[in-house]
Each structure stands twice: as structure tokens, then as C-alpha cells.
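Fold this sequence, please.
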Amino acid sequence: MPSRVHVVRLAEATQDLIAAVQAHDVAPAKSVQRRRWWKPPINVLRGTVFALALACVVLAASVPRT
């Protein structure tokens, strides 16, 4: 039960803050746009995995047996 009281108080405080900002006509801050990383196509990922697997096979075949 105390957690619900805490959540209700937080909600009331948030509403009070929103009312104060709207009363002063302050524009909300713009969100910072983060740089989006390049997302490679699935075939590039498949090719990379295949090349790594092939390199592992070649490396394993080149190791001398004892």
C-alpha cells in the first residue's frame, strides 16, 4: 500500500509541475536527436558470418596435427 501512495504523490507532483510550466508559457525543451547507426542489410551479415566461418576452417586446416 505505501508504494501506491508514493506513486500517487509522484503523479500529483508531476501534474503540479506541468501546470506551473504551462502557467509561465515556457516552451518544452526539444529532445536531442541521437545519431542513428547504419543498419547493414541481412545479406551483409550473412556474408560476414560465412567469411568468418570459412576463415576458421582454413585456419584449423593449416594447423599441423601432432
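DSSP finds two helices and no strands in the chain. The chain has a mean pLDDT of 86.
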